[in-house]
Write a structure and sequence with these properties.
Blueprint (H helix, E strand, L loop, with lengths): L12 H16 L9 H8 L3 H13 L3 E2 L7 E2 L5 H13 L2 H24 L2 H19 L5 H19 L3 H27 L4 H16 L3 H25 L12
Antiparallel strand pairs: 1-2
Helix pairs in contact: 1-3, 2-3, 4-5, 4-8, 5-7, 5-9, 5-10, 6-7, 6-9, 7-8, 8-10, 9-10
Length: 254
């Protein structure tokens, strides 16, 4: 790339350098590797060090590199932080985002349960079981932090199912959804209680999912997860209705 190649209608030099470096990071570098020095990059792209510095900051903002004083930028291990921030913003600004999240979960988690029933290792099953045990212990506890622990173990259960699927992309996506999911669970729990249900009912839903996965029954695992998430959708609708928030738009039956 030469600075003369960047026309006024093209992205800024820093953006152009950042895009090229991002492609290099994603296709030819591994986590923990260091980028070339500012001087090397400035020479390679025929731009100033200031432009390189700005480009690297853009990469850091995209979660691709980690910056630390006194050393070169380092390629980060992929995580879902940027996507998680986007989801949290959507949920904060639009209650419909909660229903959108459930629809995404129906697509991803039903498939995760299906794959987990076919592929789960002993360690994967143990992780799901441990999360469910944690939910039971929290449900029986009476201390002020018990409900928060219940929420965390609930999220942990779904994360363990995603990881047990053996699909790394599903695991990555669920990692990104964990924070927004925790917020959604807290709201759905209000609707759950309004509808006369208890934490024990929630545990029973999760037990059916675990039983099907443990038995290797992919169809039952998928159906148990689907029913659980549809119930969650009804809980969210109830909670938002009681808060005076508009209901989700009607879905087409097609």
């Amino acid at each position: 790339m030469q600075t003369g190649d960047i026309r006024p209608d093209q992205p800024s030099a820093a953006n152009a350098v950042a895009d090229d470096l991002a492609d290099m990071i994603l296709t030819r570098m591994t986590p923990g590797a260091s980028l070339p020095s500012e001087a090397e990059l400035a020479e390679r792209y025929a731009v100033s060090r200031l432009t390189v510095r700005e480009a690297v900051k853009l990469l850091a903002g995209r979660g691709l590199v980690e910056l630390a004083r006194g050393r070169r930028a380092m390629v980060r291990e992929p995580d879902g932080a940027a996507f998680a921030d986007f989801l949290l913003s959507v949920l904060h600004n639009d209650s419909k985002g909660l229903f959108d999240l459930v629809e995404v979960r129906l697509s991803l988690e039903v498939q995760a349960a299906t794959l987990a029933a076919k592929r789960a290792s002993r360690a994967g099953l143990a992780a799901i079981e441990n999360a469910l045990h944690g939910m039971r212990d929290a449900e029986a506890a009476t201390d002020p932090q018990a409900e928060e622990r219940f929420h965390n173990f609930d999220v942990g259960f779904h994360e363990a199912v995603a990881l047990a699927s053996g699909n790394r992309i599903l695991g990555y996506l669920f990692e990104a959804m964990a924070g927004p999911l925790r917020n959604g669970i807290q709201i759905s729990r209000q609707g759950h209680a309004n509808r006369g249900h208890t934490l024990a009912d929630t545990i029973a839903h999760h037990q059916r999912i675990l039983d099907a996965i443990r038995a290797g029954n992919a169809r039952n695992a998928a159906e148990a997860m689907r029913l659980h998430l549809k119930d969650t959708e009804r809980d969210i609708g109830n909670a938002l209705s009681n808060m005076g928030t508009a209901s989700p738009p009607r879905r087409s039956s097609r």
